[in-house]
Each structure stands twice: as structure tokens, then as C-alpha cells.
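tool=predict chain=A
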Amino acid sequence: MGIKIAKLISVLFHPLLMPTYAILILFNINSHYLHVLPFEYKLILLGFVFVFTFILPAVSMFFMVKLKLVESIEMHSSKERPIPLIIVALFFYATYHIFRELPVDTIFTMFMLGATVLVLLSLLINYFYKISLHMMALGGLLATLIGFSFLIHQDIRSYIFLLLIIAGITGTARLKLNAHSPSQVYAGFLIGVTVMLGLYWFI
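tool=predict ok
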């Protein structure tokens, strides 16, 4: 894998894009839980999630770079992460709170709650360990699909296997870019899976 490909993969599967991908995947799963939603409503919901969990946090980070609060959007250093992570957590929690007030399936609300918890957890871990946020986000998305498959009692192994492949490719890309060590990549993925599955187990 070349450096350019690794960078492209890192952008395509950026942690901020995981909520949008989660919505897209869940909308395409053949389930009566989701088919009752009108197509127009799905588009509005998708657009809302994309703006609140990607556009607004990304714009916030862009201004932080301009104000020299962080050196780059990629946040190579652990010292650069706290403020951006707090901002992301606020946008994720706002999305979760709005979902609670909307007539949407519980799966979306639970995912945003779990995503918020993962961001806050990564903020705490960041003070003593530079964990892979890419892999934590992918682990959380994988656990969401696993939890949803048990909820609807439906075989969605094709999505789960595809996500495992994507996680493997993304982990390889992060290692190729020297953004993380292997232990940071594995730890991020395992924490993402464990926390999100735990959320489905207890709620």
C-alpha cells in the first residue's frame, strides 16, 4: 500500500464520517424497523447527521488550525486532541439529544449515545495513551451492526464481513502512515467494539 492510498483510506474512513456511514448502512438493511420511514424523511435524517457529525466538527477544527490551537486537522500529537475531541463530543451529544425528540428508531439514538461515550472515553485515554480514533470508530460501527442483527434477528453477515475488511485496510493504512503503533490500532478497535456492544447489552 502506497502513502497516497493510505492517506485516501484515512480520509474516506475518518471517524467523523462513521455516523453518516452508520445511517446509510442501516437504511439499506432489509428490516421492517426501517422500511416504515418515508424516503424523504430518510434523506432529511441523513443530511442532518452529515452536517451535525461531520461538517460542523470539521469546520470547527479548520478554524482551530487557523487560530493555531492545533497544528493540523490530522492531530498527530496527543496534546492537540483534547479541544477537538470535546467539540466533537458536544456535536455528537447534540445529535443524540435531538434524536431522542424525533420519531426515529432506537437504533439511531443508541448509536449516537455510544459514539458520544467513545469520544469521551478517547479523551480520557488520550492523556496517557494515543489510541487510534479511526479504529475505535470502526469498532463501534461494527458492534452496532452486530447488536442490530441480534435485535432484528436477521442475518447481516455480509455487512459485518465487509466492515471487518474495511477495518483491516484502514488499520493497515494508519500503520503505513506511521500514525499509530500496532498496539494502538488494535486497542482502538477492541475498545470500540467492547464499549458499543456493552451499551447494547445493558440498554
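Residues 3-202 form one domain. DSSP finds nine helices and no strands in the chain.
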